[in-house]
Amino acid sequence: MEFGIVELSRLQFAMTAMYHFLFVPLTLGLSVVVAVMETVYVMTNRPVWRQMTKFWGNLFGINFAMGVATGITMEFQFGMNWSYYSHYVGDIFGAPLAIEGLMAFFMEATFVGLFFFGWDKLSKVGHLTVTWLVAIASNFSALWILIANGWMQNPVGAEFNPMTMRMEMTDFFEVLFNEVAQAKFVHTVSAGYVTAAVFVIGVSAWYLLRDRHVELARRSITVAAAFGLASAFSVVLLGDESGYTATHNQKMKLAAIEGMWQTEPAPAPFTLIGLPDQEARQTHYAIHIPFVMGLIGTRSLTTVIPGIDQLVATAEDRVRSGIIAYDALLTLRAERAATPPEVVQRFEAHSADLGFAFLLKKYVDDPREATDAQIKQAAGDTVPTVWPLFWAFRIMVALGFSFIVTMAYFFWRASFRQMRYPRWALHLAVWMIPAPWIAAEMGWFVAEFGRQPWTVDGVLPTALSVSALSITEVAMTLAGFVIFYTVLFIIEMGLMLKYIRKGPFQDVEETEAWVARHRARLAGRQNADAIAQPAE
């Protein structure tokens, strides 16, 4: 593929976004795990739980700092690389980003500081409150980001203003409670919880293999396995919900994920495996599971899921409708108050398809001059490249079910086998640490690549969203980001490995005080028993 300004801008944003998302899942999940551990410490007053809280909290802090450093860059990219996108939909997209920065980010950063420096300055309950506020703020931050992203997938609560040539918000609460945003939020947060659980179990397994910090490691596995098992089930269930919402508003993405070229009779089968061939428009060597796709996508046995070919035909009709809207738009802008009522009515009748007319800008300056061949090309462009979506989705799903099995096994060993684990299981846990990150990156790839050729689905094509930069400028900044992020990644891994090898810090004074109190209680019980026994 020849790389132009659009492809380089997409590559740059994809690289920074997917790199940033290496830190997000662990931040989301580890913040809650740490809060649970400190809750147990406050309830039991046992030093090992304070030690666990501090140790996993330090690893959370390293990850949090790197996530902030990489996340700030992304927000600046909207103005640098995607200036027309920012102009066109900034009224809607900017609102949740601003709220995230003002409320969640500052709230999170403030309480993170209190978490690390407030151990000796706050009461136990006060510090526990701070820890839970860190976890809540982390999840709030994800909520607003996913509301913004969910609107790009399903642009509700907004309408196009022909006078300003911008999308404007009409209903904030419709944007807030967008079904795609809500499904993405709970699915993404649950995936973060699974990531933290796998990480905690893997690091703890590494300690057990070396017979180090055994008490801390066993308790950590117990917490992570229970937390991770519930989260792994919710990821699968909520992923199913995301598939159901895609049937309503992103039919092409769903068909591409399935490699379903022709419309299947209801209920459609699920393609377990196969080799999608975009040129031949079929999936070779496909193995189907009957009825499953119909049940996932429609919750019924009678509703039909359209195939790619049918959706392309629908897109062609929408492109032609969009041309009518585009023609009426130019008349509206030229005549303004003197625009005839029939032109206004024509625009309103076809305005929902205006974005499809913009797809023709790739081939012709004025969409009204497009030939039939160009209209068919524009309709064909609504099909993303199928094979990467097909395989990325299946890798993600396979890993998701493997997490359920892994968490169930460790939960069973922790609950019914006295927290003792065979060495093969511990080795497996260590090697499995990268798996949830792979699954998360595959999930984001499916969500974002599957939306192409749109920046905002059905509204603004990606090809029109970029800034007026030169290829050299984008290529240089891309190279700079690669170098900078590589350095950050090396620093991150170095710090994480350093603190993991070093192990938890043991609070000697508190441990000795707890042991003394424990011995005093035992001595008191023994004395009481001796007094209670009758003299011989």
The total number of structural domains is 2
From the helix content, strand content and strand pairing, which structural class follows?
Answer: mainly alpha
Number of strands: 6
For the biggest sheet, the summary is:
2 strands, antiparallel
What is the tally of helical segments?
A: 19
Task: Work out the strand percent.
Answer: 5-15%
Rounded average pLDDT: 87
Spans with pLDDT under 50 lasting ≥5 residues? 508-512
User: How are the strands ordered across the major sheet?
Assistant: 1-2
Global geometry: globular
The helix/strand series, from N terminus to C terminus, equals HHHHHEEHHHHEEHHHHHHHHEEHH
Rg on CA atoms, Å: 28 Å
Q: Percent helix among the residues?
A: over 70%
Distance between the termini: 97 Å
Any descriptors?
mainly alpha, single chain, 19 helices, 536 residues, two-stranded antiparallel sheet, 6 strands
Compact summary:
The chain has 536 residues and is mainly alpha-helical.
Could you characterize what this model shows?
By secondary structure, the protein is mostly helical. It folds into 2 domains: 5-249 and 402-512; 308-380, no CATH class. It has 19 helices and 6 strands. A two-stranded antiparallel sheet has the order 1-2. The chain has a two-stranded antiparallel ribbon with strand order 3-4. The N and C termini lie far apart (97 Å).
